[in-house]
Structure formats: C-alpha cells, structure tokens
Design a protein that fits this description.
Shape of chain A: globular
Mean pLDDT of chain A: 94
Largest sheet of chain A: 7 strands, antiparallel
Oligomer: homodimer
Structural class of chain A: alpha+beta
Number of helices of chain A: 4
Distance between the termini of chain A: 31 Å
Number of strands of chain A: 13
Low-confidence stretches of chain A: none
Strand order of the largest sheet of chain A: 4-3-7-10-11-6-5
Order of helices and strands of chain A: EHEEEEEHEHHEEEEEE
Largest interface: A-B, 67 and 67 residues
Chain lengths: 169, 169
Amino acid sequence: MMKTLSPDDAFARSAPMVYTVVTCLDELGKPNALGVSWVTRASWSPFLMLVSIDHSRYSHAGIRQNREFVINYPTKEQEKGALVCGMSSGRDIDKTVASGLAFVNSEKVRCPTIDGSAVSFECRVIGEMETGDHTVFVGEVVASKGHPEEQNHLYVTHNFTMLALGNEE
Amino acid sequence: MMKTLSPDDAFARSAPMVYTVVTCLDELGKPNALGVSWVTRASWSPFLMLVSIDHSRYSHAGIRQNREFVINYPTKEQEKGALVCGMSSGRDIDKTVASGLAFVNSEKVRCPTIDGSAVSFECRVIGEMETGDHTVFVGEVVASKGHPEEQNHLYVTHNFTMLALGNEE
C-alpha cells in the first residue's frame, strides 16, 4: 500500500539518476563545466537532448549567450573530477584545472568535450523554456563521440553516492 | 581516446535510463498508461517534472487535453506489466486490464496511480514545448506517494533489458 510522501522523500526514491558533466563557455568565452543530472532526450528526429539548468548556476548565462553545450557522461575513473564540477562554481575556480579532467576540442561546437567520457553529445541550443527556478535548454545533437572501451558511466543516489553502471547488460 | 560514434550508438551508450509508467486519461476520459524513459526534474521550487512524449503516442492528445499525468516508478515485481505499457498502444488494448497492474485513484488528479510503485508523482501540466517529434510536457507535482518497503525501481538498457536499482546505496 502506497502512502503519501513529502516531495523531498518522494524525489529521493526516484534515484539513482544519471550524472553528467555539461561543458559550455561562459559569457567571456572561457570554458566551464557543471554537474547535471536533470537531463534526458527530447526527440528522435532531429536528435534533441535537453538539460534543466538552475538560474543560479554560473553556466546559465553562458549557455544562453553562446547557444552551445556538450553533455559528457563521465566514467567511474572520472568520478572525482566529475564531482568537482558538481560541487563548485565556475565563479570561484577554473574547473578545467581543478577537476583534473581532460578538456579537449569538440568537433562541431566551440565549447570543449571531456576526453575519456563514455559518451558525449555536442549540442546547439534550438529552444529554451522557463520552468520555475530552472531553464530547460533543448539542444540538437550535432556530433556524438564515445570511448569504445568504456562500458559504464555514473549515477548518483539521493545521498550523493556514485554508482557506475554499464550499458551492455 | 574518444572516437566519433553514430547517433544511435552514442545514445545506446548513455543507457541505462530510468523506466517509468506515465498514467493519464485519453480524450474520452478513459485511463491509459505508457512507458516513458525520457523524464527528469525541471525545477526545485515549484517542484516540476517533465516528460517527453512522442507525437505518435496515443496518450499525447489525452495529456494535452486533460492537462494531467502521473509518473509512476514501477518496481522489479511490476516489470512485466510495466513492459506491457511500453510495448503496446492504448489504441489497441485496455492497458488497465492487459498490464495486470493495479490502477487506483490518485489524490489530486483524475488520472490513476499504479499502486505498488516505488514512488509516484501526480502532475498538473503548467507548460509544454514542441521538440522535434516529441512534446515536452512540464508538470507541477501536486501530490507524491511511495511504497515504503520498495527500495528499487526499473532501468532499461539499450537492448531493453530491465535492471532494478535501489536508491538506498
């Protein structure tokens, strides 16, 4: 028998959620990265992905201005650096250094890709929608890359423990 | 070293994805249910969730008209019925019968909740956005319920194998 739960308790029970690192440029054109779990697909054809970005995030203005982002799915080996991207702000530190992750040129967009990710989607923003304290940015996938040997990426539980799950089961 | 992947191969590598059953009413007011993996949160406050629904889905018109849906996270025990909801259309069968799942009254919305789900979010549509071949429906969570003993729900891999993952790790 189900019972009424507080919104926070209910949301915790919907975990684990996929954990991605979204890379982008800030308003000055400097690369940044942030942890994003609120991400999913939005269309088969064209291939659209969406990310929900908090208005308070440093990267929000940069994505709005530059209209590009990359969704990177870090592997278990990249967990520490991926967490740095989620736990700190580009206002305070340069995450391309502090995270220890390898930021490399993307194929089709100006913002970088995190090398070694299990998979990455380069996106150009084709629409956005205000949703409460977040903006949903919808991006068309203009290039996709992956690391053939990496069969897992990260999921985060309600208490921020990281799981690595494979996609080949 | 990452290499360029086809969009389909890249997307497969972003799995496993959470697997939910969205319940709604059709245009005649009859309950229906569909499998939805393209779901995530869109705002902390207000508590907003979003689902991407294919234009071709039978439930699309019903959600658009009735402005309500429930996101149910089925447990491992509900896997078979949850898959029926994902693999068939409400045009052809009555999934409230064919799935074997227990459709019960929701607290705040007219469409049913699937009893025994690990967690469920009752949503009222507050906005929508056309995204290619899908519509993103944004819903405010007006009630949330859960099954206190159920610590797992379903994830689907790229080849449609179901995993049950706990949120208490």
